[in-house]
């Protein structure tokens, strides 16, 4: 995303999406086995294409607190830093982003007041913003992440190489001209 922002002068608007919303049924064991089997390929792709050594956090965690926290961070002007820190915590440092201690450490690292942050997690204002994002994702027909929607017209699903993202960005920018 950083490379795309620099190369195509795009603006990124992060939106919430819950993979495991409250009340979701248990993950079937065969699906968990598929996910586990696909990890070596994911790790190799991340290393080869982006130079990242992934060390992923636990699968299937409740991301709702992190997503609500993102809405608070965005309102406080540190949304991108918060997103980056949550991604680092989960994807590189194998931390559980449903753990409030982890989220408070992330919030503190991006200069958010820890008490205000914790209060925001129970604030209906931020919860409604997160739920509106999820509703929008469902309206788009999304059923997983990552998913990128360009200019409210073009959907790119799944982890795609930079070249695919750049091609769609160029098409969206050309349509706006």
What does it look like?
With 177 residues, the protein is mostly helical. Helix content is 59%, strand content 5%. The protein contains 8 helices and 2 strands; from the N terminus they run αααααααββα. It has a two-stranded antiparallel sheet with strand order 1-2. β1 and β2 form a beta hairpin. α1 runs parallel beside α8. The longest helix is centred in the N-terminal third of the chain and has 22 residues. It is globular and about 45 Å long. The two termini are 22 Å apart. The relative contact order is 0.14.
- Compressed to H and E, one letter per element, the order equals HHHHHHHEEH
Q: Kindly provide the radius of gyration, computed on alpha-carbon positions and rounded to a whole number of angstroms.
A: 17 Å
Largest sheet: 2 strands, antiparallel
What overall form do the CA principal axes indicate? globular
């Amino acid at each position: 995303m950083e490379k795309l922002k620099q190369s195509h002068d795009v603006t990124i608007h992060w939106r919430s999406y819950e993979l495991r919303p409250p009340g979701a049924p248990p993950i079937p064991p065969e699906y968990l086995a598929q996910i586990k089997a696909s990890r070596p390929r994911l790790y190799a792709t991340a290393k080869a294409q982006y130079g990242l050594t992934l060390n992923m956090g636990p699968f299937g965690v409740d991301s709702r607190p992190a997503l609500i926290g993102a809405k608070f961070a965005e309102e406080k002007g540190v949304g991108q830093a918060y997103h980056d820190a949550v991604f680092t915590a989960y994807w590189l440092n194998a931390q559980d982003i449903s753990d409030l201690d982890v989220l408070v450490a992330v919030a503190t690292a991006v200069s958010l007041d820890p008490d205000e942050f914790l209060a925001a997690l129970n604030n209906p204002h931020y919860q409604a913003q997160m739920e509106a994002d999820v509703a929008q994702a469902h309206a788009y027909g999304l059923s997983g992440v990552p998913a990128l929607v360009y200019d409210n017209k073009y959907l790119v699903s799944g982890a795609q190489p930079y070249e695919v993202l750049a091609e769609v960005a160029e098409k969206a920018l050309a349509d706006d001209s």
